[in-house]
Amino acid sequence: MVTGSGDGAAIGGAPGTNATPQARGEWARHWRYDGLPGLDLLRARYVRHSFPRHAHDGYVVCAVTSGVEEVGLQQGTVRAGHGGIVMINPEVAHTARAGAPEGWAYATLYPSPEVVAEIAEETTELHGTAGFTRTTAEDPYLGRMITEVHRAAEAGNALAADSLLRIAVAHLLRRYGGPLPARTPRSAGARTANLARALLEERMADPPSLERLAQELGTSPFALLRAFKGAYGMPPHTWLTDARVRRARRLLEAGRTPAETAVEVGFSDQPHLNRHFTRIVGVPPGAYRRERSVQERVRSGAARTYKTTGGAHS
Question: What Pfam families does its record include (predicted)?
Answer without folding.
Answer: AraC_binding, HTH_18
